[in-house]
Every structure is written in C-alpha cells, then in structure tokens.
Amino acid sequence: MKILALIFSLFLSFSALAQQSYKITYLRSSHDQVIENQDPIILFANKSETALTSGKIVDGKAKFPYERTFTTTASAKNFYKVTNFSESKEIATIDSLSLNRYAFELLDEEKEILGYKVKKAKTLVNSNTIEVWYTNALDIKGGPNETGQSLGLVLEYVRNGNSAITASSIEKINEIPALVKMPAHLTFLDELTYRDEVWKSRFIQIPIFKNEKINFSDEAKSDSILRFANGTVILKKVKIPEFAKESQGFIELVEKSNGDAYDRTGSVFMIAEDQAQSFFDGMKNGMATLPFYEDATGKKYQGMVRTDGYSPVFELMRFFTPFGVSHFNKNLTLKGKTWQDSVSYRQDISEFLPVMAGKEVYIGTYIGNYDKGGHKVSLELTIHPGNSNSIIAQNILSIFNTTNVMEMGGQDYATLFGQEKGLEVTFTLPQDAKNAKLRYITTGHGGWGEGDEFVPKVNSIFLDNELAFKFTPWRVDCGSYRLYNPVSGNFGNGLSSSDLSRSNWCPGTITYPNYIDLGDLKAGTHTIRVHIPQGAPEGSSFSFWNVSGALIYD
C-alpha cells in the first residue's frame, strides 16, 4: 500500500507540471474501409501520463461495464487498468508486462500520418503479424492499445495486413480533462482476479447444482434440491431474470464418478409447463398418473409423448458419462496417458431462452445408475448478450421424449421401435407456424455386440405421413475420448470399449441435436412419426432408442 501511495503521489506531482497535452482519436478499419457507426478510441497523453478511453466514455454514454487504461512516468513499466461496473463500483489492476511483452523488429520503412513522419515496427502476437507505425516527434508515448507504446506514439496498428486502427485526428489541448484522469482512490486486485471479475460481469451466471450427488440411494435429503427415482434424478426450481431478446444461452455440466465405473445415459432437462399437467406431476405423484402411449403390443409408456393437456420434458442436453473418470483414475496406469480429472459438457441451448426469460423454471439432471456412490455433477446456465447464429424462434413445444428419465421410478425403456409404426405422436398447433423445425436427439442402446448400440440404424422422421428427413446416427470418433475413461474394458486386439463406434454417442460426450426443417405449418392437428428398424432381443439383452423432439417455430 505504501508503494501505491508513493506512485499516486508521484503521479499527481507530474500532473501538476505545465506541459503540452494531446487528444488523439483513432478509428478502426477493415480492408482499407473505415467501419461505420463505431465508437472511436481516444487517447489523452502528455509526457507524464496517458489515459486510453473511448468516445462514448468521454461523452458519458458508455454502457457498463467499461474499461480504461492509464500510464504514468512515475511507473513507466506499468499499465493501470480500471473497469467500471456501475457509477459506484470500479476495480483496478496493475499490468506490469504489456509494455515490454513483445520484441519488435524495427524496419526502415517510413510514411506520413496526419502530417507526422512515422516509422514501422513488426512483431508477432498469438501467431498474428502486428505492424505499428510510430513517431517520436511529439515526445510522448501511447497508442490505441498496449502494443508498441514503448517505441513512441503509435499512430497506426495493423493486424495481418487487413485490420487497422489509425489516428484520424490529433488535437493540442491545455490539459487532460479531469473526467478521464486516473482515479485517485482505487481497489486493486491481482491481474487474474481482475480479469475474471471483468469477464463474468459481461454475462448472466445462474448456478443450478454444485457437486451434487446423483446415485441410487434412499438417503433422506433436506436441502433445496429435489430428488426422485431413488436419487438418480435431481431437480431444482431456478429463477431466470429478464434479459435482452438478442441473447445466447449455454449450459455447462461438470461430471465426476463418485463410485460408478460405467458409461451411463445422462440428460439435462427442463419441465415444460405450457399445459395443465407436466412431467413434474408424475415425479411427485407417480408415473402411472401421467398419460401413457400404447404401442401395437399393448405395452404402455408413461409420460413420453405430448397429449392435449400434458407436455413431456424439454431435453436441453443428452450426455454420456465415461468409464469412471476421477474416482478410478488410479486403478489403471498406462504409459504416456494421464487420465482427466472430470468431464465438462458445454452446449448452446439458445432456442429455449424464449420459454425461460423472466420465469421460475424447474431444471433437472438424470444419470441412470444403480450405484450407491454414483456420480457428482455441477451445472450452470449462462446467458450472454448479443446476436446468436443458433436457431432461435418465438415458440417451442415439447412433442416427445422417450429417454426414461424416471427409469428407477418405474418408467420403462422405449422398445417400441421394433414395430412398423414406431413412435407416432399427434399434436395440435394453436396457431400457424412459420419456419418450423424439429429439434431431434437420438441414441441407440443395448443388444450386446449385435444390438442397436453397435449397429448403424436409419432414423426416418415423417410429418403428416410424408418423409421429412432420414439419416443414420453414428459416431466414429469415440476413441478421441480415451483419456476420460480410466476403467473402460480393454480387449485382446488393443482396443478399449470406449473406442468403439456407437449409435450417435461416445462415453464422455454430448449427443448434439439435429434441426430438421419442416417448413410452414398450418394451425391444427399434425402427426410426427419416428421409424427406426430396432433389432430383436439377444437373450436377456434388448435394444431400445432414446429420442426426444421439440418443435421450434416463429
């Protein structure tokens, strides 16, 4: 603290000296074309200090959070970075590396910018070629960013020959305005903590689960986490704030084995509450209380399809646990292999944001297992401002989900695809639907070596008796995730079980949705049918398919 006080004292002493100050305005360009409607970069500088800011900050129109950068000759090797989160909250850090972080090659080329002769220097930043054009004519140092300021006043910064920041004006001013000077009293953080706080301030973080156990147990719990199906399903009511319409949403799940050694089906889901009855009712009151789907043999499946008055769950993410990551890492050591400590599954779920904004929603996680130790998971939802390239529409309806989330609560496996009809769901659209898409997730399971888990099978999706889409869901990249599978079975031919190709899933990965274009649909009744040539049982083993479908439309 005494050192900081001395620096500030020197800073104020230098500022008091009469000296020429400048205001330099910079504009960004791409391929020699100035970018329109940009917020210009503004540098205020004299021999004693610099303040790097922007036009909107100077005009008081910048949105929080925003960052400014300062230097002083009292501490010539440091940048002071200050971020304002609000009118009353700001944090700062000292960056002692930026000024001399890069070694420059000084070149003989010269040119003029705004009447000043400038010299060229070149360096590499993260494999990008950076060229700076600088002058010493004004006896000050600074620039539009930290790069090259040790050389002099940078008037142009060029990245890879096509992206530039160039001085558009240089004005003499009497002194640096008090509004943009470095604040006298700051809360300093170490640089890593500072960067973390700045990063997190730019989006919404909604923690859902933190190191929660998903296991097969009757142990009583009294926290805010609801547990069902002998502890294999956890559920929590989450308050989602209002946010900008143009936003992107991500969920991230971190999983570790807590005793279960096997690859298990997992699902992150949200309760659809657009009708009188929801899946949550079945979780509380028993799955037999939910509407059922009856196949051609008379077998009944509870809560899997949409009916008038009931909606199945929205599946946000389908994931698969690896073979015993973390808990069993020391059980097998292999030369040249270091097992991962956990698996992080991260997925864009922006299409679900319209049914979340400003509401309280139930979000849950299921991992099918019969192990008392089971698994530990952490789950977070983040919402980020800005346009998304994802498929986002105004409406989304849950149509079907055959993943038996309540497996340990009596919900059966979907073996109905062995029949010609497969899965057929009739639903009612309340209004005309434009640009309708079916968000479809599919994975095949069971049957040992000749079962659908290990045999490619065509999935055909029909809309109103017309084939809309067909494809063969198959993953051949499972061996890429070997380091997440410490106790995967090993075979005499040198392969591990986790290496084997599977019907759209690998141990330790996410199964991504397919977005199937259905065109414009009229209000009223429609039918979606899913056909898969499911294999016959092999002794005590049988094949089944977990498929989920949500209709997205404008």
UniProtKB/TrEMBL annotation:
GO molecular function ontology, one term from the record: oxidoreductase activity, acting on paired donors, with incorporation or reduction of molecular oxygen, reduced ascorbate as one donor, and incorporation of one atom of oxygen
Keywords: Disulfide bond, Signal
Name the record gives this protein: Peptide-N-glycosidase
Alphabetized SUPFAM superfamilies for the sequence: PHM/PNGase F
Signal peptide annotation: 1-18
Database matches in InterPro entries: Cu2_ascorb_mOase-like_C, PHM/PNGase_F_dom_sf, PngaseF_C, PngaseF_N, PngaseF_N_sf
Domain of life of the organism encoding this protein: Bacteria
UniProt xrefs under Pfam families: N-glycanase_C, N-glycanase_N, PNGase_F-II_N
Source lineage: Bacteria, Pseudomonadati, Bacteroidota, Sphingobacteriia, Sphingobacteriales
SMART domains: N-glycanase_N
Residue ranges occupied by any Peptide-N-glycosidase F N-terminal domain in the UniProt entry: 205-383
